[in-house]
Predict the structure.
Amino acid sequence: MTGLDRLAWRSLWARPLRTTLSVIGIALGVAVLFAALATNAGIEAGIGRTVDDVMGRSDLRVGAFEEHGLSQASLVAIRATPGVAVAAPLLEQRTYLQRDPLATSAASADAYLAPVAVIALDPAIDGAVGGIHEVRLAAGLGLPSGRDAEALVPAAFAHDLGLELGGSVTLLGVNGPVSFKVVGLLAGKGPDPTTGERTIIVPLAASAALFGPRGVSWVDVTLAGSYTVDGVAAALDQRLTFEPYVLSDRADLAATLQASTAGFQAMTALIAAVTLFGGAFLIFNTLSMTLSERVREIGLLRAAGASRRQIQRLVFCQALVLGVAGSILGLLLGFGLSILIAGTVGSLGEGVPIDGPVVPLPGVVLAAVIGLLVTFAAALEPAIQAGRISPIEALRPPVAGRSSIASQMRWLVAVVVTVGVAGLALWPIGLGPAGSGADPGATIARPLLVYAVLLGVTLLTPLILGPLGRLAGLPFALFLPAETRLSRGSLARDRKRTALTVGALTIGLAMIVALGSLAGNARAATEAWLTDVIPGDLVATSIRPISADEGVAQQLAAVGGVARVSPIARFAVAFRGVRLDAAAVSGSDLATDGRLTFVAGERRAALTALDAGGSTIVPRAIADEFGLQVGDTLQFPVGGGEAVAERIVGIVARGMPGQSGEAVLLGWPDATGRFGVLGADAFAIRFAPNRATDAGPTLAATARGLALEPTPLAGIEGAISDAFGRVFGLFDALALLAVVIAGLGIVNTLTMNVYERVREIGILRAVGLSRRQVWRMVVVEAGIMGVVGAFLGCLAGVVLGFALGGVAGLGWASGAPTIPWLTIGLAAAFGIGIAMLAAFQPARIASRISIVRAVQFE
Amino acid sequence: MSIAGPILEARDLTKRYALGQTTVDALRGVSLTVQPGEFVALMGASGSGKSTLLHLLGGLDRPTSGEVILGGETISDLDDDAATRLRRDRTGFVFQFFNLIPLLDASENIGLPFTIAGQDPRRGEAADRIRDVLGLVDLAGKERHRPDQLSAGEQQRVAIARALVNRPDIVLADEPTGNLDFTTGGEILEALWRSCAQRGQTIVLVTHDAKAAAYADRVEVVQDGVIRDEIVLGRRSDHAASPLIARLAQLGL
Ligand SMILES: Nc1ncnc2c1ncn2[C@@H]1O[C@H](COP(=O)(O)OP(=O)(O)OP(=O)(O)O)[C@@H](O)[C@H]1O
Ligand SMILES: [Mg+2]
């Protein structure tokens, strides 16, 4: 350490408050960045684990499209395909668990516990150690015989049920209850993580007694020797002609899971970048303030023979100290934060697979490197300015606002570009090797857009600061005219500093408002969507298909006050090699109920054609994706080399909600006759006008008696909104951190303003300004910054909200953007509050300035 | 305020500063009276306690003991609010350095007492008064100049105008010519003198320059925290310094 470096250290030390604030600023930025990386890495790991759980050791999965499943012939054909080493058939079916073996009446709903998933596998191939799907046992022996009515139950589930090893479970089968002896307890969940803990594993041979003769849900295949996935897939395509199927490999599955989390990951990345940006503001402000304070001192050093380079080194040295301290603190904070985030995300349910944050080594390095880079980028301009200070400056009285606004903005652009480029270049590394599946273009477009908007606003800030500040001062001037005049003056003194401080606040608030607007849109769109397409006030769902001849719809319709019961089935179809969601609906019910918004095709004719068969109605999103038009004929392969042709008779604004998007609509005759749909899995129930309240309870009881779960439409919306709420709550919390950083920036700036003005404040006090007035002057100063920041932030937030629209991947809908007034109000109040709170300490310092000392010495 | 009797009276003022373990007795018992309309100069060597005394007289600081009476009212034990009002309405200060707010132009700086009181200095009586004092300190035409566009002498005259603008009971000036050349210093002293001669403004001026002190009616010589001597010069429009210098020489100063 040379003498000058020690000076750098000491000057940081001399202003502990400011130094601490900048370190915290960087630390928060790095923390959010790191937490985002760790969360995303956790999600990637979760995806990897999910793929392992789902696929086991297999390389390819042949999945059934139809509820009949894949036939024995298909299984034989798969096994005979060259390159297939092992083919493990699996059947998954939902049914009810019956606790009391003596209660045999299906109608007494109380005899049933909640639904369970049954997975049937071949114990000769699967289940044991070394099988394709390995089942870890906590107790018991597994399924030795493979034929007997024996079952494996997750230990936790068994505990809930009060089941012991050797006890029995009774499941509702097609021909009545069937009992299974519990021969083993599973250590974790079953082989399909999506079914959760309520899974029971039985031998495939014994499953016929439960579900009757039917095909398997999928066949998982491992490859022999040197065969490739693509080669075997092509060979399978040649041989499998018995029924429709879909082939997927591990990468496909990972890609699907990734797509569902891409939006979430992009969002966390974005917020992290914005937070870091805020941290950069803080550092820049600190360094340039320290600089302007020490112009004379630096002038003296120059006069004493210090070179430009030495002076620049001094500034960089300070930046290095701040950057290193901030990055280390940030990594620690970030780790804590990532645990919190992982907890929140994990509690969201199936949406985002995550077990816990994963600390990716590249992520640690990336966060630290970006933290340092940003610090250095922020130090660049102050260092150049410092180098330009001439020895004569030591003799001149200090002049306020040395560097021009243009040079400030040059700096700003430099920092944004640095952060942006570093982020874009290094982001994939941070995710680790797994993070390759998602489409990078889509992930990057959004942050770029947001960056552009935020940069635009910050560049505009100094230009409109004057008039806006005057406007913002008006309410304060009403009560405190003198203080407001003086505050405005001091804000105008160093416009670039004020602009940067306000800029940081603007950015944080813009994020909050944009998120609020997105969440609001998503909620409103969901609500509008469901109301638009579902012909009912509530939906009664079943976990097994209910065929029309069971008379369930009639029983529901018989309840007094019910106007209409419309059966709905959701299934999947293959189209141009991808899986599409499809829904079987009754066209006449939709017509009478007035559902669906047609963007093409004639409404009445289309819905009539739907019921007649051979016709389909396609949601606009799907039509756009595949370039479909009314009159086109779609070919859906259904196996045996055959395909079902469906003519498009209408395009609607929104289709039925499907598993992973919107569903194409098909009439019931086609669904059962051509696609093998066995029955309805939901009934939309519409009450007669004004009968919802009195008919509701009777209907609910009837539905439960029929093993249906009634959910009001509002309940479905509520559940979706809840999920939104938690996701956005998380984002909001991160965005709040950005505002807190901005708050620290305001403390910094105000303190600086106060220290710079010790003499001025002394003069003002000598001329007759009271302590309280000085205090209020500083608070009003902050208030004006808060108002300006809140105004610009809310404005930018609304613009961003409109620009971002729906966030892809989380599966939420986009709709006409609305202005989130409540969020705007709260964000504005929060921003102004934080700003004025930030003024507290600086105001105290200012009000305690001694007149005598301030005016005494030069 | 009573017409008869002194406008300002200091009684046995002491001021002790604590400096870590030790203490500094900046004033050790100063008594002083100033009559309305009088121009009094405080002279003395550096560190003798002139500034300290001036701060106490204007209510900028509180004495360790003794009292200051301005216009019949004791001001040495006022609380902060009262002292603030006193400064705003009844005293005017001129310091050696940094008298002006760099951001505000000349007339805005002069109007500060009005601004602070919540009045608009661009309107009404406030505006008239500002125009009036601008003329008095000979700065008409420079009201829109900011401090960095004014010479050092002009800056000090702006400060004097501000001290005068609210027609205070007393103007207290601490070496207003301290770091200026002779001619510039002369302009400032002329401005002070005019306010005294034409408006009857009471002035207390701290200086260690005999030529400046020669503008005063009376010179108090401060030494080691006490008033050692008083030299009465009387009102003279020629401001000749020689009688004062002769008297100081007699006193061995
Ligand atoms: N805040 C303080 N703390 C400690 N000592 C002080 C303080 N202010 C002044 N003094 C001391 O009090 C004494 C008188 O100081 P004062 O500033 O009144 O002198 P002065 O006559 O105005 O000198 P000058 O001509 O240099 O301005 C000096 O010894 C000074 O060191
Ligand atoms: Mg002095």
In short: Chain B has a mean pLDDT of 88.
